Amino acid sequence: MVTQIEIKGFDEFVKYTETIDDNGPPVLFYFSGSKLPDGNSWCPDCVVAEPMVKAFVSELNKNIIFVYVSVGDREYWKDRACPFRTDSRLKLMVIPTIIKWKGVQRLEGSQCGQRDLLQMLFEDDD
């Protein structure tokens, strides 16, 4: 039931958002630092949150689209002009961040690794 998609970078994110069907299933974006050769993100908070997020999403029995977005390397992310920070739809302050598209709900930083908060975010439509 959960469709998982991985995209890399801001341009791919923008292209993907242009294809979202407003009448389709809810779309949630998970923003994380890009992966290092060892398979983990350079972002320590993302490394902590990701196993919880992945486990939670894998247990969901809902029709949603879960999009993993790699925001790039540390230097790119830390730049104040990073488009993930400046885009009016996102205004990301920290990673990891999970955003419900076309909604105001979001989890930021350590909140992403808290099962009760994930449950509230993902079940909000029920």
UniProtKB/TrEMBL annotation:
The keyword Electron transport does not apply. It is found in: Cytoplasm. InterPro entries: Thioredoxin-like_sf, TXNDC17-like, TXNDC17_dom. GO terms for molecular function: protein-disulfide reductase [NAD(P)H] activity. Keywords: Cytoplasm, Disulfide bond, Redox-active center. Belongs to the thioredoxin family. This is Thioredoxin domain-containing protein 17. It comes from Vanessa tameamea. The lineage of its organism: Eukaryota, Metazoa, Ecdysozoa, Arthropoda, Hexapoda. The gene is LOC113396234.
